[in-house]
Write a structure and sequence with these properties.
Elements lengths: L11 H7 L4 H11 L5 E2 L3 E2 L6 E12 L17 H7 L6 E5 L11 H9 L4 E4 L2 E2 L2 H4 L5 E4 L1 E2 L9 E6 L3 E3 L2 E3 L4 E5 L2 E5 L4 H23 L4 H4 L7 H13 L5
Parallel strand pairs: 3-4, 4-5, 5-7, 6-8
Antiparallel strand pairs: 1-13, 2-7, 3-9, 3-12, 10-11, 12-13
Length: 250
């Protein structure tokens, strides 16, 4: 069996700094940095209200061709790469899967996801489906995917072909070790080389958005408070006072 490499994981402090961001803030700031569309299109949350952030373990599927791959659900389990990617799991990891948008292949099921949870896995982002959703949803993992199916992973048209390689998930490039942030708005890929800068500018973005939201709810006018670059000197002064008052609470 081919040997695959583990990923290089970011520091805990970097993950903690990025954890303050929403996917919307991350996407907007990355766009301003030059990564125009970091959003993974297709998978949606099946764990409403949950947010996850962590490094990506990647799994790639390809179309089945019988001379290259012929198997059933349990034949030679250790050769099945959807198992192998989970063996790399460390606490906080997110598995990102290019399942080619398939709606009739269940990439993982209850036992696989239970193992992933037990290893400290944070969540999954799949351009495709899982099965055993009724029991898997109780594992308290973050789940972003296109749907569910009763079929197992190679039952119809795709097979797992590579682990921890560059993949396309929802037509977005994901490199092994990229940071994923996912919430109710969707999943965003943070290229590792952009992560530190994003944590710096994104944190400031989150702060002024909290300030603006408070002011708008209190009756402030949209033209005065949003967007930030339209602020007058008076609003800038108001914001500085607000920051000082709320230091340590944000």
């Amino acid at each position: 069996m081919e040997k695959f490499n583990d990923i290089k994981r970011p520091s805990e402090s970097l993950i903690n700094a990025l954890s303050k961001l929403t996917s919307a803030t991350a996407s907007g700031e990355l766009s301003r940095m030059g990564i125009k569309d970091p959003s993974i299109t297709g998978p949606v949350t099946y764990s409403s209200g949950k947010k996850i952030i962590g490094p990506a373990l990647t799994l790639q599927f390809l179309p089945i061709r019988e001379d290259i791959y012929y198997d059933d659900e349990y034949t030679d389990p250790e050769e099945q790469l959807h198992r192998q990617v989970l063996y790399f799991t460390k606490p906080g990891d997110i598995v990102v899967v290019d399942a080619r948008g398939s709606m009739n292949s269940g990439v993982f099921g209850e036992m696989m996801l239970s193992f992933f949870k037990g290893r400290g896995g944070e969540g999954i982002v799949i351009d495709g489906c899982i099965r055993d959703y009724a029991s898997s949803k109780d594992l308290n993992l973050g789940i972003w995917m296109k749907g569910v199916t009763p079929n197992y992973h190679t039952q119809t048209s795709i097979f797992p072909s590579a682990v921890n390689v560059p993949i396309s998930c929802g037509n977005t490039l994901v490199m092994p070790g990229d940071i994923i942030i996912a919430d109710d708005d969707g999943a965003v890929v943070i290229p590792i080389d952009y992560a530190q800068k994003l944590s710096d500018v994104g944190g400031a973005h989150q702060e002024w958005e909290i300030f603006v939201k408070e002011k708008l709810i209190d009756g402030g006018h949209l033209k005065d408070y949003y967007p930030k670059h339209s602020w007058s000197e008076k609003i800038e002064t108001e914001y500085k006072k607000w920051l000082k008052k709320n230091k340590g609470k944000l």
